[in-house]
Amino acid sequence: MNHDSPSASKPAALAGIKVLDLSRVLAGPWCTQMLADLGADVIKVERPVAGDDTRHWGPPFRQDDAGQDTREAAYFTACNRNKRSITVDMAHPEGQALLRSMAAQADVVVENFKVGGLRQYGLDYDSLIALNPRLVYCSITGFGQDGPYAERAGYDLMVQAMCGLMSVTGHADGEPGGGPLKAGVAVIDVFTGLYASNAILAALNARHSTGQGQYIDMALLDVGMAVLANQAAGFLSTGQTPGRAGNVHPSLAPYQDFVTLDGNVLLAIGNDGQFARFCAAIDQPQWAQDARFASNTARVQHRGELLARMEPLLKTRSTAAWIALFEDKAVPCGPINTVAQAFDDPQVQARGLRIEWPRTDGDRLPPVAGVANPMRLSGTPVVYHRAPPALGQHTEEVLQEMGLDAARITALRTAQAI
């Protein structure tokens, strides 16, 4: 799939929604990219010269046609497609006035400054809601707008540690490589972006009946606690603190990776029917009749005895051979891919999950590659119409839409307000 996909010509779900994006790094930009993918007009406001921090978070950097690193960090491209970038100095009075004018015409503002950080610029919720009562204003912070940690800076890694996620991720103490681990992706930032976009869509829908916008207080710590999901539910139900178990599921068996003749294979058996089919496929149907293994609860209780039987057997064939054996028998099984192998997977390719946009800002860089949005709406599909923008690429375009003429824009540049 590319930017010229048929979805680009169909109506967008959020067409007509204007978003003023004052956020940086990942959680806020992930939220606004979601809105942009759904068709909202997202104006990304960046600092003159420096821009969003993630423009410089490399390596890895994008490469030019000769295979040489540029100074454009790949990180930025992950969460800023479909947006227009303008540069405004919000510390400058004229920059503040510009942003207030934009907020007065916007449907949504998203920001992730520290608590109260935008009040000095007249860009806080109370100031902007007075100009635009229909405004939906979303603040994203590490710890929320109140509580003893409200003034603290919050980062994904810190919250992964504080919320307990790292305590249930990684191998158990005493095992090789044992100890708490962070996830390989900044999952709290990404989940916060997703929760924030959901909250914004809810607020926009509520506005249809009330005519009023509202304030949304999103906190990384709140999200971190929420996404503990079954681990939190287990603790709250029993009072027992869950621990790390590597790739083993605490409530399902067999649901983990196994060593094969040439690597590893992942089995994700989630019910008794799947286990019976697994046993039949490996010519051990009696396992499914054994009282120790006949039900999932019994298999979890007798996990060690089951693994003692499974592990030697699974070492007798290659990963590909096991996958081939199970794939037509409704036994969930798969490889443990690298990222490169995942993009080479035929199902990933068939679903068009790698997308590209040509660059149009004259920088002669190769097309920007990205990952497709996984939401597939039949009537109002996701749109891919803009590559992640160059810094300030759309400043003049946006200001002209606001009614500023060339002389006024030049004056703002001379004053270093933009």
TrEMBL record:
Gene3D superfamilies: Crotonobetainyl-coa:carnitine coa-transferase, domain 1 (3.40.50.10540), formyl-coa transferase, domain 3 (3.30.1540.10). The keyword Transferase applies. Keywords: Transferase. InterPro entries: CoA-transferase_III_domain, CoA-Trfase_fam_III, CoA-Trfase_III_dom3_sf, CoA-Trfase_III_dom_1_sf. It comes from the Bacteria. GO terms for molecular function: transferase activity. This is CoA transferase.
